[in-house]
Records
---
Amino acid sequence: MQSEIIVSGFGGQGALFAGQLLAYAGMDAGYHVTWIPSYGPEMRGGTAHCTTIISDDEIGSPLVRHPSAAIVMNAPSLDKYEPLIAPGGVLVVNTSLTARKPTRADITIVEVPANAIAEELGSAKLANMVLVGALLAAANFLSVEALEAALEAHLPPRHRKLIEANRQALRRGASIAATVRQRGVETLVMT
Amino acid sequence: MTKELLKGNEAIAEAAVRAGVEAYFGYPITPQTELLEYMARRMPELKRAFLQAESEVAAINMVYGAAAAGARVMTSSSSPGVSLMMEGISYIVASEVPCVLVDVMRGGPGLGNIAPSQADYFQIVKGGGHGDYRLIVLAPATVQEAIDLTYQSFDIAERYRTMVVILADGNIGQMMEPAELPPMHAANGGHNGQRASWALTGAKGRPHNVITSIYLVPEVEEQFNQKLQAKFRKIAENEIRYAEYATEDAEWLVVGFGTSGRVAQTAVKQARAKGIKAGLLRPISLWPYPEKRLAELANNVRGILVVEMNAGQMLEDVRLAVSGRAPVKFYGRMGGTVPLPDEVLDEIIRLTKESNS
């Protein structure tokens, strides 16, 4: 089993950190993992994405053409990655920053107003964790508890005061996705 | 020891620290800058020397000086920066002083870009600097391998009194993978502060040592060249490294190093799943090259595919080693692009079809 997750957004939205946290959680759960960022002459407000692979076997290529899941945090990321997700995969869309609806019928689509939820929780910076929580509830390759444990284990000391808020954001994203999933609809629209 | 999630550049830096590197000289350049940044913090913490030089030319000559004094020393850079170091590299090998260079290759030629590339194989493996010299070139494909090779590289450099190059690419530098760090050596790598007998340590009470690369009389220079060549032959006997995957019954062999090698390994797995008996040879030492092993494998396969992130550089070494035993095809991506497994798989399938028709 191998899960390939692309997280993509504007620089500053926490896309790279979200991918790293998935890698940490995968490693702590005993899987092989790789995390590779897009790196370039980049800046806040530019684009940033990363690829995290979690596998029960040795990982060859750290890059994939057709990931099994993608979290798209803005409109350009939706346009770029929606067509690339492998059939049967999961697309998590931040509807706070995307205008159009996703169109694929052969993947699970989870739409989350992540910025609105994050602001409700106290900071727009938590949007990435809301989306990660939604992904985990929809894709089932790692538990929310494993992510929470990874936050606890790997967040540097200067950021430890943020753990509780991040945990809440993860749970909020996961619970909304799970609720809608139970209704058995293919397109999971968060409200 | 437990595994940590480590970024290639930082993992290489910490591995060098743990190998007992005493001095680091360098100049920032993407995609290896995290290595220099890590050293800027870590080396002073351990009361070891870190110096950001005014240029790569200065950095390599600082390495030359520290190595002549018998210190465990290294530098790191990326393609254009390494081009600037070429004169110093030739002098260092000719002066027979040990040191380590880490080259995290990026897209070129020229200023190019900062994306991952393998287009400096010719420069590092075949020369770049002037004169008949060789570098011991080690190419990691994973963060763990980058750590292990860096850790060993100082001992190898000192054993032969020459330069070892860790030849990585932007992928290896920027990627994070779980890896285990080796135990911490004291500065100077367990020599307990003892300097080599040839080192320039002050000649009080002993005949003075000379570190030089100038031999004005051609016959004397030739004699020195013969000595160097004898050393290179010894290295070629002892320092060949490679990894293999699914080669036992392989009919189709893929050859790739570093990032291309691991991408090719995924393609080989996918080919096996389709019933194609593919295998992978991943050279780790690019010089000395695993030519004997490649020739052996070539005897038993129907075709060979070389995969690189360049226009076909290691390809020449493959052709020399294979020497007509099997058809050799090439697939390369250039300019900072990285091949994906499905592209390599398509090439493997094409190779099988061409050879069957």
Note: DSSP finds six helices and seven strands in chain A.
---
Amino acid sequence: MVSEERVVRVASGQGFWGDDLEAPVRQVEGGGIDYLMLDYLAEVTMSIMQKQRARDPEAGFARDFVPLMERIFPRCIDDGVRVVTNAGGVNPEGCADALVEAGRRAGVGGRAKVGLVTGDDLMERLDDLLARGHALANMETGEPLSTVRDRVQSANAYIGAAPIVSALEKGADVIVTGRSTDTALTYAPLIHEFGWAADDWDRIARGVVAGHINECGAQCTGGNCLIDWWTIPDMASVGFPIVEVSADGSFVVTKHDGSGGRVTRASVAEQILYEMGDPTEYITPDVVADFTRIRLEELGGDRVRVDGVTGGPRTDFLKVSIAYASGWKATGTLTYAWPDAAAKARAADRILRERLDRLGLRFDEVRTELVGWDSTHGSLAGEPPADLPEVQLRVGVRAAEREPVERFTREIAPLVLTGPPSVTGFAGGRPRVQEIMAYWPALIRREEVESALEVEVRDV
Amino acid sequence: MTKVQLVHLAHARSGDKGDTANVGVIAYDEAHYELLRRALTPEAVKAHFGPMVRGDVERYELPNLGALNFLLHGALGGGGTMSLMNDAQGKVFSTALLRMEVDVPDEVAEAVRGRGRVPAGWTVERYGDDGGGLS
């Protein structure tokens, strides 16, 4: 029987691939949590993983996840903390294999189960989908995918909670997915625990808001928090968020006692607005949530109650995240010192552009910024003062072909001896040429994806 | 009326979706929400950013949070890995908007003086000291 008093605690341990490696360990060792969610994926992460997998068939997932689990696996099993993660990236099978091995090394063999969710990866099915009339048109420009088909590197549907819930029902202790929607890593366990119906829009929407608050880690507990940032205590050991969710979907955001950071109405409000579009229509695979009726109540002691969220029916479509190769770029920097630092940097930029021009190099874009003056606030920074102590010249180029970008990387260092004076800061060597992976958001009818999803549970 | 920089009236956070930056602006004092709603029209915000925002500015209202959400289209040099900008993901468009000046009644200007900025004389030895805030 589900009591209205019962609370499920979902802790956040990673907000992106590259986040604080100690945070998930602290979340588990702090005790009292039921689930640990680890979000590793952003818009560009899948294409980076796809490139890694092209070089090494065993790669293509968030590798940090495996040694992390080797550390925390025994404690998670002992305490009954279940882990839900999209660390699988473009190779969830490989991730699950490595996880099983890590579990055996950690000594949980025979008493742990790993869940694996696959089917979000549409790469192998793209031509079939296009042939059957799915245009996969760009949501922003309306162009059909056929215009860039030969350059597509990865294509993954954002999938919802159902396969994670299924893996939990089958007893999985750690569930690895590919492109699960970030918020689903938090609300899938809630659907499993409370038995919310698939059309219980309001409660699922509340779970989505809990997931949105959890998905960026410490960004709701004091990290990157603008309000009175200089007063936020002990950020060196910042506590990551924990949502304590009731059966009706209302919840409290908090963090472990004794951890650093701060949870207030303002810190939570900042995170609610992060990457927000239309707040009346926050679209996920399982519900469309309305953020304009959220009520935040500060309870004190780093606790904020979140209530009032409503939701409406899910749409007939899932979003597809497609990455395609779209040329090359590089960025070079040099540092100019007082006096007249900005004038020198601009003169160097002029020389550089003249040389690139004389070499006959053509770029789609050449962008010049002065770090220390206008690289963040652009034209709002106005004209730099002549007494600016120093400034870093930052020039970036972009082109469809690699060659002009490669040549550009050889034109930065010469400026040290052939340009304006008082220049330094070239210790890092030549700039690196990077291939651009452009983002192509599209929609697909959900049944095309959902009929192909698979859930497998393996013994460790 | 007195001109006050938005940084004294509100805090903000920004992020990206493709080539669009979003900036959520939250009033420090909910009593000032209506004032911000009137001053921060999409047209005024578009004019503030000038050449930094090539496309339209859309605005959404969240009175429940004392907040406004702005979408700045065409602000990120193509967005994602395409962009050559230092701030390719629009992380600090938040404080760029807080540079904007708005007209407020004199008593409001007086009440919010110094708000949103590190107090004079503050040093990093006091970082994390609760007494350093004005709230």
Note: Residues 341-358 of chain A form the longest helix (18 residues).
